[in-house]
Amino acid sequence: MSEQPASEYQQRHKPASEFESRDEYLNHELSIMSFKRWGINLPFKDYGVELEDWVPALAATIGKVVMVTAMAAAFAAQFGLTPEFVAENVRYELLIGAVFVLIFAAVLNPNTNLAGTHGPMIPLIPLIAAAGGHPLALGLMVAAFGLLLSATKGGSKLVNLTGEGVRGGLLIYLGAVGLIGQIGKLEIWAEGIGRGEVSFGVILATIVIYAYLARVQKRWLAIPLCSLLAGVVAFAMGTPFEFVTEPGLPEFSPFYWWGEDTGWKMGWPELSHYIAVMPYALLAVAMWSPDFLGHRVFQELNYPKKAKNVLMNVDDTMTVCSVRQGVGVFLGGSNLASSWGTYMVPAAIAKRPIPGGAILTGGMCFAAAVIGYPMDLAMWEPVLRVALLVGVFLPLLEAGMQMVPDNKSAQSAGICIFSCAFINPVFGWALTMLLDNMGFIGDKERSAKLPMMDKLSIPLAAFVVCVGALALVGQLPGIPALL
């Protein structure tokens, strides 16, 4: 039997021992990979799996448990469902997510980021329920709008039209607000168990170890090391912890999950349910572009300039997120999909492409779901808050600051932060992109070179859609919901 010819990656690959530093080796790996779009890409044939891939995989698994738990619990609180429903649905979503990660990000299209959880939608779930929404109707509408945006390549177009100052301001706002929020939640939890000093000890230890990792240029180790340290410090200070989720598998039938007396106990949605969730679905997809933008920017900042072939494809990622959303919610899952930030951010810092860690992430999510006990550890407050702090929000803040090198960019960034604080990041991004491209703020020379379509038409359309969606669901201050 004749041997298969070596792939381009196998021909150009060199062992790490031939490079003077690990960083040089990782940069070389990024520069020699070129993935097949909607083809078959295999580990060790088209890309490698390295030690560094374990870091984003671990971070992604912790983040997935945290975010899906928050999403499922928010739905459960509105529809009167039990904690047992939340635990079983999180287990179910981990398995669904693992399958999609292994099929798409690891094999069919490694230029697509993993389909994670749409965190900014969690605070809107009470409004969705109050409007008479149905989780299945919401998920299917998000999938439909997402496929429409990806098919028209609207996502990548909006990313390309977002100037550096606007990008920097958006990342700074998201990072700063996230940092403050996570620290606040940790403090509230510590006070709630009567051990307020625990939050101080955990955060102080996290700052020290993160600063050291930054000094020795090993920030890609921040999530596992800081999360481990947070758990050890909290436990050493007398914080109680126990494993309660036993091994097992969830129910797999969508008829169970969408039954009248089982699962969600809501039955299948009717036409009125789809009408009620339409503005929220539109808003969810409108939030995708700034979210996806932030993740791709992280790759651009950390990868070598010639590593163009391994950058995240925004439109294809939207396609995968949309498909994962539609299939997952039809099967009975509670997740609302978006680009997986707790994977992409540490993967970019570790200078690793998407597929290597995707394989490990799929395996770890599957193992966590079946074993059960790792879910308890990942959901323990000191671990999950520190994982989000050092894995997502602090790197976002740092990346945003790197993108504001001059006064022109600082002006755009400042207006973006102001606009985001006024309403939310969707409004801030859409308004500042419009003002920046029209030349009212930022680099006027850049604006003068843009064609009218890019300068006004597309940014104005994005602003109208975003503000319209916000108005429909009552997210504009002082203005009641139009629906």
From TrEMBL:
<feature type="transmembrane region" description="Helical">
    <location>
        <begin position="128"/>
        <end position="149"/>
    </location>
</feature>
<feature type="transmembrane region" description="Helical">
    <location>
        <begin position="456"/>
        <end position="476"/>
    </location>
</feature>
<feature type="region of interest" description="Disordered">
    <location>
        <begin position="1"/>
        <end position="20"/>
    </location>
</feature>
<keyword id="KW-0472">Membrane</keyword>
<feature type="transmembrane region" description="Helical">
    <location>
        <begin position="220"/>
        <end position="241"/>
    </location>
</feature>
<keyword id="KW-0812">Transmembrane</keyword>
<feature type="transmembrane region" description="Helical">
    <location>
        <begin position="271"/>
        <end position="289"/>
    </location>
</feature>
<feature type="transmembrane region" description="Helical">
    <location>
        <begin position="54"/>
        <end position="77"/>
    </location>
</feature>
<keyword id="KW-1133">Transmembrane helix</keyword>
<feature type="transmembrane region" description="Helical">
    <location>
        <begin position="383"/>
        <end position="404"/>
    </location>
</feature>
<feature type="transmembrane region" description="Helical">
    <location>
        <begin position="410"/>
        <end position="435"/>
    </location>
</feature>
<feature type="transmembrane region" description="Helical">
    <location>
        <begin position="170"/>
        <end position="190"/>
    </location>
</feature>
<protein>
    <recommendedName>
        <fullName>DUF3360 domain-containing protein</fullName>
    </recommendedName>
</protein>
<feature type="transmembrane region" description="Helical">
    <location>
        <begin position="196"/>
        <end position="213"/>
    </location>
</feature>
<feature type="transmembrane region" description="Helical">
    <location>
        <begin position="89"/>
        <end position="108"/>
    </location>
</feature>
<dbReference type="Pfam" id="PF11840">
    <property type="entry name" value="DUF3360"/>
</dbReference>
<dbReference type="InterPro" id="IPR021794">
    <property type="entry name" value="DUF3360"/>
</dbReference>
